[in-house]
Design a protein that fits this description.
Elements lengths: L1 H30 L23 H12 L9 H4 L1 H25 L11 H6 L5 H16 L11 H26 L2 H12 L14 H20 L5 H18 L8 H6 L10 H10 L10 H5 L7 H10 L7 E6 L5 H4 L5 H4 L13 H14 L3 E8 L2 E8 L9 H21 L3 E4 L6 H4 L3 H6 L6 E3 L2 H11 L6 E5 L4 H12 L3 E4 L2 H10 L2 H4 L2 E3 L8 E4 L5 H6 L5 E4 L13 E2 L4 E3 L4 E2 L12 E3 H12 L13 H10 L3 E2 L2 H8 L1
Parallel strand pairs: 1-3, 1-4, 4-5, 6-7, 6-9, 7-8, 9-10, 10-11
Antiparallel strand pairs: 2-3, 2-13, 12-14, 12-15
Subcellular location: Membrane
GO biological process, one term: lipid biosynthetic process
Family: Belongs to the sterol desaturase family.
């Protein structure tokens, strides 16, 4: 009862905030309807080949350094530009991953509203500004003789850059920023940045091309002055560029991380360094907190938001979020780390697939494998909100292949059991087991943990009932016969029983599978079970992920392959149709959806994950694991009542677009 009252209070408060949020979002979008000149980046038409604009300069720098016979042409400054650009990419990505992890966890989060796919798509070109800066660095080096053969360190240059940033750069940026909020410039340029009310680190660099030109001119003041006065150094340049990236990312990360004691030790620091909550108010309140990194000009010109300190303290004191439902998944392949929400945002926002450039990233892939091996603990991947339910997804740091290694089973079971016990201690209501975390050979569909811990309050759900319901309702209407092929499981037995009881003939092509299925069926249902040696008997096949290419080739042309397993079979036919693994389209009110669940299209959720949500919504008091199965019709009706929609071939195509 207390739980329901808490949710009701939170829902009322959330409704008020949503009204303000969507009103502001509507305003920002309406003002962004007049793009000005130089809005698009010049290399947009190149798509993923945009990096080629740097190729001539990179090639020339490498050639002159390693191939030139003239020692005067071998300049470390010229060749170090590329590593500097790459370090900026890595720096930004670290902030993206950290921010997404911390906001999913919930502690110190500033703004609660969700991030959706449209924001991820809009911010997917965050690296354009690095390309632009790279071009300027290379061209500036070639044009300015003073930029050649810079020393590693010069104290006077560092002081000059610092003073010029505090003075002219911060002052000019403040007034430029205020000008950009004038309706004329805002509607043509700056509204693009403010479309992201809930910010991520890379939101900081999402601006039209023309804006980036103006920002670069500002940041070039200290660098150009130091160069022309002969006081520049490699350290000064690198440190200043890193400082800009660091402060930009920090100010947009949506979680507060600056501790109080810093301002207590040196109180004037509040005029020289902003905090994430400080700049967050600029994105939610619109006409306050204009300063770049140093709030002193907001104090001077009275544009400081009066709630800045209150929000700062409130964000620092905020504890980690307690979810109502937890979904426990795991990594699939070594490259899947990039498709996680904590990985590469643009890849995570699309269905998982292999990319040709992954082989270039093998050092990072190897490093991630080592980290997951050493870390050895579940980690939070994502948070969502479904009506009144707070949802979280946790991941086991193990890959799919490890689940089939006998010597890894004990370790994996220990990790899963620890996650269940942690969920129980935190008061989480339901925990659903995703992918192979419910493998029968591993833990008998989760029954192992219930047997070991009979006192568990958290309900453990393997989602088999909904998976069966989804598969059965994916079979085309009017079908009288299906082929059931693949290693038998709890889901397969239940599908066969339901179909046979419904009058649909189930055909198996293997003697052993036929015998095992028959033992699970009552005499009446067993009359609908058929053993056949012909592969042309039906064009509807219910299959597991281990279906071989040879067997697929034997299926009739136009066959529909409907998987009942967690993983899809490898496609071997172009003249057949391959359905998704058991999944459904989520309702629009599922919030904070900005990544795809493995290979599923956008806003499509696996049946095993949905099952946990339904369990909590319906208030079911039993575990669903081991041999336990819920009424299939009851579970299916509950999914439809709560807004989930069946996934069809047409809806899959639409979701991918």
């Amino acid at each position: 009862m207390q739980w329901k009252q808490r949710l009701l209070r939170e829902d009322r408060g959330r409704t008020k905030l949503q009204g303000l949020y969507f009103a502001r979002k509507k305003l920002y979008k309406s003002m962004a309807s007049k793009p000005g000149i130089l809005t698009e980046w010049p290399w947009t038409f190149l798509g993923n080949f945009k990096y080629l604009v740097l190729a001539p300069f990179v090639g020339h720098s490498i050639y002159t350094y390693f191939m030139s016979k003239d020692e005067s042409q071998r300049d470390i400054v010229y060749i170090i530009i590329l590593p500097l650009l790459l370090s900026r990419v890595i720096h930004n990505q670290i902030w993206i991953s950290l921010s997404r992890y911390r906001t999913a966890k919930g502690n110190n989060r500033i703004v609660d509203k969700s991030i959706e796919f449209d924001q991820v798509d809009r911010e997917s070109n965050w690296d354009d500004q690095i390309i632009f800066n790279g071009l300027i660095y290379y061209i500036g080096y070639l044009l300015l003789e003073q930029a050649h053969h810079l020393p590693l360190w010069r104290t006077d240059g560092i002081i000059i850059i610092a003073l010029l940033h505090i003075g002219p750069v911060e002052f000019l940026y403040y007034w430029l920023h205020r000008a950009l909020h004038h309706h004329f410039l805002y509607s043509r340029y700056h509204s693009h940045h403010h479309s992201s009310i809930v910010t991520e680190p890379i939101t900081s660099v999402i601006h039209p091309f023309a804006e980036h030109i103006s920002y670069f001119l500002l940041f070039a003041i200290p660098l150009l002055t130091a160069t022309l006065t002969g006081t520049a150094s490699i350290t000064a340049f690198g440190a200043y560029i890193t400082y800009i990236d660091f402060m930009n990312n920090m100010g947009h990360c949506n979680f507060e991380l600056i501790p109080k004691w810093i301002f207590s030790i040196f109180s004037p620091l509040k005029y020289l360094m902003y905090t994430p909550s400080y700049h967050s108010l600029h994105h939610t309140q619109f006409r306050t907190n204009y300063s770049l990194f140093m709030p002193m000009y907001d104090y001077i010109y009275d544009t400081l938001d009066k709630s800045s300190n209150t929000l700062y303290v409130k964000s620092l004191e905020r504890e980690a979020e307690l979810p109502d439902v937890m979904h426990l998944t795991h990594l699939t392949t070594p490259e899947s780390i990039y498709h996680l929400r904590l990985g590469l945002a643009s890849l995570a926002s699309k269905p998982q697939s292999s990319k040709w450039y992954f082989w270039l990233m093998w050092p990072v892939t190897l490093w991630s494998i080592m980290i997951t091996w050493i870390y050895g603990h579940t980690f939070i991947v994502e948070r969502n909100l479904f009506k009144n339910l707070k949802l979280q997804t946790w991941a086991i740091p193990k890959y799919r292949i490890q689940y089939f290694m006998k010597w890894q089973r004990e370790t994996i079971n220990k990790l899963i059991e620890e996650a269940i016990m942690e969920a129980d201690q935190k008061g989480i209501k339901v925990l659903s087991l995703g992918l192979l975390n419910q493998e029968e050979q591993l833990n008998n569909s989760g029954e192992l943990y219930i047997r070991r811990n009979p006192q568990l309050k958290v309900k453990v759900v393997d989602g088999s009932s909904l998976a069966v319901a989804v598969v059965i309702n994916s079979i085309p209407k009017g079908t009288s016969q299906v082929v059931l092929r693949g290693r038998l499981s709890k889901v397969a037995y239940s599908i066969a029983l339901a179909l046979c009881q419904g009058g649909i003939q189930v055909v198996t092509l293997d003697d052993e599978e036929y015998k095992r299925l028959k033992t699970k069926l009552n005499p009446e249902a067993a009359t609908k079970l058929v053993l056949s040696k012909s592969y042309n008997i039906s064009k509807t096949w219910l299959v597991r992920d281990g279906l071989s290419e040879d067997e697929q080739l034997k299926a009739p042309k136009g066959t529909i392959f409907i998987p009942y397993s967690q993983f899809p079979p490898k496609k071997a036919r172009k003249d057949c149709f391959y359905f998704s693994t058991p999944a459904m389209i989520t309702p629009k009110y599922l919030e904070n959806v900005d990544s795809c669940e493995n290979w599923l299209p956008r806003r499509v959720m696996s049946a095993w994950r949905i099952a946990g949500i339904l369990h909590a919504l319906e208030g079911w008091k039993e575990h669903e694991c081991g041999n336990m199965m819920f009424d299939i019709d009851k579970v299916w009706k509950a999914s439809l009542d709560h807004g989930f929609c069946p996934l069809t071939m047409a809806s899959v195509t639409e979701s991918k677009n």
